[in-house]
Design a protein that fits this description.
The complex is a heterotrimer. Chain A has a domain of 219 residues. By secondary structure, chain A is mainly α. The mean pLDDT of chain A is 87. Chain A has 16 helices and no strands. By secondary structure, chain B is mostly helical. The model of chain B has no long low-confidence stretch (mean pLDDT 87). In chain B, strand 1 and strand 2 form a beta hairpin. Chain B has 11 helices and 2 strands; from the N terminus they run αααααββαααααα. Helices cover 74% and strands 2% of the residues of chain B. Chain C is α/β, with parallel strands linked by helices. Chain C folds into 2 domains: 157 residues, 3-Layer(aba) Sandwich (Rossmann fold); 67 residues, no CATH class. In chain C, helix 2 packs parallel to helix 6 and helix 6 packs parallel to helix 7. Chain C is globular. Classes of the chains: A mainly alpha, B mainly alpha, C alpha/beta. At the B-C interface, helix 7 of B face helix 2 of C.
Amino acid sequence: MSRLPLMLIGLAGLIAVPFIGVPPYWLHIMIIILIWSFAYTGWSVMGRFGLVSLGHGAFMGIGAYGTALLWNHAGLTPWVGIPVSMLLAGAFALLIGYPCFKYKIVGHYFALVTLALSVIVGQVIIATRKHTGGSLGYTPEPHGGDGFSIYALQFPEKAHFYLIALAAWVVGLVIWRMVDKSMSRYALEAISEDEDASAAVGVQVTREKLKITMLSAVMTAFAGAMYCQYQLFVSPDTVAGVGISLQIVFAVVAGGIYTQFGPTVGAIITIILAEVLRINIGELEGLLGFRPFGLDNTIYGIMLVLFIIFLPRGVLGSIQARMKGGAKA
Amino acid sequence: MMEIINEYVFSVFFVETLLNGLLYGGVLALLSLGLNLIFGVIDVVWICYAELVMLGMYTIYFMHVRYGIPLIPSSVICVLMVALLGYVLHRIIIAHVLGKAPINQLLATGGVLFFLQSIATLMFGVEFLSLGVSLGSFQLTEDIYLSKSQFVAFIVAAAAVAGMYFFLSRSYMGAAIRAISQDREIMILMGVDANRLYGITSAIGGGLAGLAACLLALQFDVHPFVGISFGPIVFMVCVMGGLGNLVGGFIAAFVFAELIAIGGYFADLEWGTVLAFCVFVITMFIRPEGLFARKS
Amino acid sequence: MLVIDDVTAGYGDFTALRNASIEVKAGEAVAVIGPNGAGKSTLMRAISGMIPLKGGTITMEGQSISSIPAHKIVETGIAHVPENRRLFARMSVEENLRVGCYAKPFRAAFDKRLEFVYELFPRMKERRNQLAGTMSGGEQQMCAIGRALMSDPKILLMDEPSAGLAPVIVQQVFELIRRIRAEGLTVLIVEQNVQQVLKVVDRAYLLEAGTIRHSGSSAELLGSEDIRKAYIGV
């Protein structure tokens, strides 16, 4: 428990960030990292048990678009819209999860069925372009004169949103820890080892898997809603569909699936990398003789393959494993 | 009600839709064949399969449009190129994750997907490039026109599927490929070098992807993200047919293509895709191992 | 013909076979008997290259087989009928036999070998288009032996050919082995069914806990009081 004071100091430092004159650009990067970290943590609460979902782009999209659509079309405040969207994502998770788990769709098959969900949600958003703006994207209507509105959860001031995102991130980590300490964790680990044997000793396989899947979906939907409220712009490319599903999985793997801060580290690595390359694209252009669009993802892809082959526990996971090994030796 | 049925179902446009679905099904069958072969034999899903096809489309584009090589030799180069890519993919990546957890295999090839997409963006930019070859269309009946390039694609795909069938059922290599998918360990007793056979299978899978690339390039523009537009469909076709079951995949390809076409006929093309994917999900719940899975 | 000299082998850190030496001369039938887990299958797997040697040498007609790639071993004239038959269940009998003829040097003789196998096992000819997995245990054993014979081997290794088969079928399997011997083939067989196997082989080695305890002619071993008590149970 000696870690607790350290963590509290760290947290205090993070809370202080917007008040010590951090430039808005950096604040923006931190907000983005916090939001995605929360989403990645949401994925990892189930991913760590071998439940590899490629459907989280769908949950994220439901959260983002649900909130925005309810606000624009039904005039429903995000205070209600966000929980409704989260419930909707949970319902979808139930709808797809229950038969999956009941009929023992696991491994590749589970990944591909959930991938289908991503495709469906992505395509529905595009197909209903009259209401959602299709692939061009969608903007929740602004509320209030200067853009600040608690009712609409719209905050032009980055500091406000930073604190919200920070709080969400902390809650995400607490949820992760609670799952880690729960009985369900042992049940789920047993299931991922051997499903039939776990069922034989009385683990309620379908129920345990469903619980964690719904939790994960609801968390991811909340991340989508946060993203929508922060950026005030959503499009299938940025919050929904297959691309996002893959991005979520890969970032978590890069950071480390099995550790609490792994998803956060994954978000930091991938977002910083993308930003560095984006900013230096001009210089790189001079250096290479052409404009290196896509360089971030090239490096990202190579990193990912190398991680899987050489560091399957991710960056943080590997560091922690090494430190533990070193301590023992 | 009858009027609606008469208007929509017994119309020449509907027949045309069904025919187009059939033609698309041929290309889809070819696409799924390569992926299915890889899965059935090596037990790995190449998430980046559609991106290999994308690189094939660029290959044929550059050969034909930039270097002015006639279409047929360009196609041959394209097939060989993607076959080589398949082989290399196996050697430098798949060989290292064989026997690891399925998630690791999925993610390793997923990393390749990102890599290929972005390397294509880097090298070729994001604009849509067209082969610029139009074969025109021909008139089937008074009212029904079919695109010749689609028709050619269907014929070539059908021929390739038939060729594959004969290769697998009649040749020593084909028999060994089917055998290794059932029992890898004892292949050594048959004098088979499993690693070499895996490499060859990967090259064949790549070659099929290359052939599909040639046919797709006749109908669609190529851009770095073109893989996303048909990749998931190919996966679903393979799963619906029972991963690794070549015949099942073949049938599922036509079911899927018709669903997309019919959905697109009554609403938008996206709704066609949504319909097909919903049917897929429901199928999975009824027959989790795929519609045409073997009984184990 | 086949000389196994001081061979140690196992899986990972586990050593299942320790300093075993066995020799099989041309035209002989030799059995390796012993209880479950004695290292009998390990021996067979080591000979045909399914697992690497940890020590010792194996030579086939003077050629060391540890120095050639494992998949080339079959080309030296060693064919292996694996434990539990391991047929390709979703392929026809004839396709299984074709895979047995996969190595390039064997392919030219495919038709001749097929004829030979069908003459030896007419039942296989009747079932040539049937899926191997749908046949009875005895028929599957015939098919597995036939598959091994497709490479025209000089020596046939058989790993527990009677395991998991009904008593009536076991009789048939040993009958098969007699017929193979009658064809002049050299045979090395691993069995738990000691009483039966000693009736069809010339000599036998007794393997216990990874090491060879006894060896001798079938008659000697059948006559030995200790072995009768421990393994034959009469």
